[in-house]
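request received
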Amino acid sequence: MRMLFLILIAAMSLAGAGALRAEDYPAKPVTLIVPFTPGGPADSAGRIIARALEHQSGRPFIVENIGGAGSTIGVTRAANATPDGYSLLLASSSALVMAPHLYANLRYDPFTSLLPIGQITEAPFIVLVNSASKFRSYADLLDYGKANPGKMNFATPGLGTVQHVTVELMMDVGGFSATHVPFKGAAPTVTALLGGEVDFIVETLNSADALVAAGKLRPLAMTGIKRLTQMPDVPTFQELGQKDVEMRSWFALIAPKGVSAPIMARLEAMLNAALTSEDTRKAFRAAGFEPVPMPPAEVSTMIRREHEKFGTIIRAKNIKLGHAPVSPESTMLAGLMGENSVR
Amino acid sequence: MSRHIRIREYYAGALMVLIGIGAVLEGSSYKFGSAAQMGPGFFPVVLGILLVVVGILIAVTQQGAAEARYTHAKAGHSGDEPFDLKGGTAIIAGVVSFIILGDFAGLVPATFSCVFISAIGDRTTSLKGALTLAMIVTVLGSVVFSVMLNVQFPLFRW
Amino acid sequence: MILSALNDLLYGFSVALQPANLVWCFTGVLIGNLVGVLPGMGVMAAISILLPLTFSMPPVAALLMLSGIYYGSQYGGAICSILLNLPCHPPHAVTCLDGYPLAKQGKGGVALGITMLSSFAGASFGIIEMIFFAPALVTVALHFGAAEICSLMVLGLLVGSTLAKGSPLKGISMTLLGLLLGLVGTDINTGIGRFTFGIHELLDGIEIVAVALGMFGIAEFLKSVNNVRPIDTSHTHIKLRDMCPSRSELKQAAMPMFRGTIIGALCALIPGTGPTIASFVSYATEKKLSKTPERFGHGAIEGVACPEASTHSSVQGDFIPTMSLGIPGDAVMALLLGALIIQGITPGPALMSAHPDLFWGLIASFWIGNIMLMVLNVPLIGIWVKLLAVPYRILYPSALFFICIGVYSSTNSITPVILTLAIGIFGYLLLRLGFHPAPILLGFVLGPRFEDEFRRAMILSRGDVMVFAEKPISAAILCLTAILIGYQIYAAFRNRQAVGGKMEELDNSLTVEE
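response:
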């Protein structure tokens, strides 16, 4: 059955090549590049929105997972794709906000090679401790951290991830310090917190919800502007008087630069319709996301604002990664530092 | 035979020592770091040193020689078949042709040449036999991998 | 508590035995089995391809099918390892050690029969473990922090490296080489590319299939081409009765099978790399316990039974943290969880009470699926064994193609094929020098994780190496390791004298014959 489907897709993509008018869009299946490995939150978000767009357009939206190198491999692929509206990207701050500061020379520019269609979801980070921890409030954690600099441990999914920068910002504003323990991905950081190996982590609702509900983790504070409906007792940093600690994890639908204006408008309309449909909202909520539509211009400003804000922290804390990522499609692989051993 | 194995053990040890030294040299070009914040060079250097030590031990103790002699004598055959130039070359050339044709011409020509070239390496295979085999594998392989499993590999890239 | 668990299990069977679920479970194990047989085709690839198909299915059916692919492929993988000496999945590298010699002796059918039995026994134990001990195991697993995992890996690496034929020193050197190969690529902590020698494709590391199929596949073909004696197929009966292992063979395999399952169950505490450690450690254990260790590597039936049992018991154990905490242990588990999340089910500690049909249905389906795999594979053994009757001149060119396409499909790029060829040629050199490549895979699989955990343990202890001795679990494991090394040295010393004695006898008898 699936085989037939694939053959059909192949046949259709051959037949459908050539110039297309916006009102015909989409005339063939659209590829949505998710620059993360399957199974993670980005993949879930990507598949939910792909299904919703499929529903809106009546054409298949196929998710292609291209993970690796802090999501920059997949983003590079999307940025260099033919701008015909049939290759889209699900992007997050990793590639558009963090990567430009972390990697020496990327093969895309977040501002000039990509165009936002709109935001899909956003979620604040929640400061979490083990429920057996002696910290009952964020103030407890702060006081301890100030009195014992560097003694606490915090886990993140890796050097230069949004979680890492968020904690650096928290420490900067709160005036305390703790030791960074990088992991590979978000899942093992939760395990480390449950096992008592680290003292705190920051994560979004979808990784924490079930464990908080089961009484295994305790939320202390969250980095949004408003409290979460799912966790009404958890104060925001705004309320705690640390207004600068405002961080979010977001996903946006992005197109490579050069897609014609009518198709962009059509995509924006489809995305908005998808995000307001009750089915899609339900699917996102069930997966732990909050669908928050945002028009393209605002997404651009938001990316710029975050770019500057994160850049300041990354430079101040001297967070560095060695080299730019590999692009899997080119065999020449330019865009890397000339020497392989960066000291 | 026993002398042959002893020399083999010297070579075996030497190879490990060489790789170990290589790892240490390359590894020491990365930051070594401290115990609390280990750099990327720590593990390569430590592994390299261990490999050098083990390599020397292999050559010195000749442990492998004793066991090899024992098992070979018992099993009644030598484990050391000489390198078969025709077969070996054909296998390597077959894979190389897959790599080159796979990159430029697509799955069908790559498969055909890979199977055909490697098959003619066998001394009992006729040219016709190799051709037939290559054809069968090409057809089956294209159906299984390209159609059924949807491996992203164009059948032809012209 | 036991009663309620049994009650829940019965409920699970009522879910899993629904005709639609049975069909999906069967589809899953069948696909898994087939994918497992093809060298180089990974479970990950198969599950990723089929994942979108599950969106329109009910969650239970989706989960049953996807898990079926996962454990079904383990059965398939063993077939390739035994008959062709091609391990596509690292744990099966151990099965090759004795499985392939058995196949060459015309006992391929028996080896496969024992494999199926061991797999089933291991899986069953893993399932029982999941039913009764899941909460307890999760608690223990959470106590396995960086230091404990490190110590366990040291134990696994040392024990595993001595299992190959030939000298333990050569085994250790192969493990070290594997660890080094595992370092190739981008360092996680700093983002620096190591051992890439300016080749940018290497920044993402070497694919596991490139190492496995290069070392075992291409290297072995280079060695055997025009040198191989045709496998004696006159003993290869294909009647079902003859494939059943004899009573004495069963007896031989029983205890190793049992010990294998226990070791596998314990190693399941380290998700992801658990099955690999389990199969190597259980093989080494059997070799140590055996009264005739010299048979290992030359077709010992125990050498097939124990790794397969432990792999399967560990594979089922992989589901424990995933299902009871909602934290995926490895990439395959992450995919399964992703499938659930898209279905609107949040995995977590509450899964068992919120979706009992899913949890217990899955467990019941494990059993049903494993029985299906047995029923499916036992009659097929006859067909698989016929593979051995295929002349080498046909076998190796075809297998070479399967290797090429399998490696290609791991990343959909040609670069890993180049690497496989290079590794294969290097592997042939190693074979000629009397090394056995199995421990390379062990080192390669554990290497990156080992370094990662070690560095993390050192960050957490602020650079104090004593942390490994101060934590009780870690200290206990290290003690065990020390005892094993001590015994190894003692045994080697004693053996040397014994071997020396036997050698003289042999030399004498040989001279007499001359």
